[in-house]
Specification:
alpha+beta, four-stranded antiparallel sheet, 10 helices, Tetratricopeptide repeat protein, TPR-like_helical_dom_sf
Length: about 325
């Protein structure tokens, strides 16, 4: 087979050395130095799709979406593989980041997926529940969400304030899962790593201390918030700590470990918070740390309504906006 008048062959030793060294530098976060090597590799063998795929990967790591789209398209133009090549997935991520919806549709179709009907508007797909790891390079936090297309997740848990993320935000995520979460019914869900914030949420996050005599009292607040179109989550129950190795493996929802923060693993997909792991009744502690996602003009009314429904078993104090 000949491409651009040059027969396909195994990459040269110089190409391999430049590429291998570039990915070592990428692992160290030295993107500029890696870029110089990958450009050299592309100059050496421009007919090789891998040359452009590697550059597209680098630009994705750097969040340089214009360049990721350009080099990604060069990579797929040289493909001689069947549908499902990861080159198309990277093009789909770049196109989604840029809101280039015709290209995003083309990429997902070429990968073998079925996006919504052809058009120029936002890609809408119902891909079910999943988990996303916020701030994967920092103080990582795993939360539940809804996949709205192959590269975006809407956050349905209430993230801890340290993440800088809010309930209802949409995050762009990578295509390769790092870990799984297994729910009580045996279903498994992938954990994807966040790349960047795609759409912010205007709804602030509040921290409040509850006095809830029973689990049913706590559940009532979470249901009240949900009925209002917002969310409340008992962080005292839904947060657990995991080491990075455990976080990136298959973790059951009813187990825990010691290590770095990796919250919300115990929540059920689609119902984070109020369907999360329950402390046995005999060990119930009435004082709870609760996160609430609600507008400033509504949050106090929600809490007061919750107390008014059962004033002998419920109370709240120390409301604070934290994100």
């Amino acid at each position: 087979m000949r491409i651009f008048g040059r027969a396909r062959h195994r990459p040269s030793a110089t190409w391999r050395q430049a590429t291998d060294r570039a990915f070592t530098l990428i692992s160290d976060g030295r993107y500029e130095d890696a870029g110089a090597l990958l450009i050299r590799a592309a100059d050496l063998e421009p007919w090789r799709s891998e040359s452009w795929y590697n550059l597209a990967l680098l630009h994705k790591f750097r969040h340089d979406w214009e360049q990721a789209r350009t080099t990604g398209l060069r990579a797929v133009a040289l493909l001689d593989r069947a549908p499902g090549a990861p080159d198309w997935w990277n093009v789909g991520i770049a196109a989604t980041a840029l809101q280039d919806w015709p290209l995003a549709r083309r990429a997902w179709q070429a990968y073998g997926l079925r996006p919504d009907a052809a058009g120029t508007g936002v890609v809408e797909m119902e891909l079910g529940s999943s988990a996303v790891r916020l701030s994967p390079e920092g103080e990582a936090e795993v939360v539940w969400g809804r996949r709205i297309d192959p590269a975006r997740i809407e956050v349905l848990s209430i993230p801890l304030p340290s993440s800088g993320r809010r309930w209802g935000e949409v995050v762009l995520h990578d295509g390769v899962p790092h870990g799984e979460r297994r729910t009580a019914d045996g279903a498994t869900y992938p954990v994807f790593d966040e790349i960047e914030l795609w759409a912010p949420s205007p709804v602030p996050t509040w921290l409040v201390l509850l006095e809830a005599a029973t689990e049913s009292d706590r559940d009532a607040l979470e249901q009240l918030a949900a009925d209002a179109g917002y969310a409340a989550e008992d962080w005292s129950s839904s947060v657990r700590l995991l080491c990075r190795t455990c976080s990136e493996s298959r973790m059951p929802t009813d187990d825990g470990s010691d290590g770095s923060r990796d919250p919300h693993d115990q929540g059920e997909p689609g119902h984070p918070g109020h369907l999360s792991h329950r402390t046995p009744g005999a060990l119930w502690a009435p004082e709870r740390e609760c996160g609430i996602a609600a507008p400033v003009g509504l949050v106090r009314g929600l809490l007061d309504s919750w107390v008014a429904d059962s004033p002998d078993t419920r109370d709240w104090r120390d409301l604070e906006e934290v994100c």
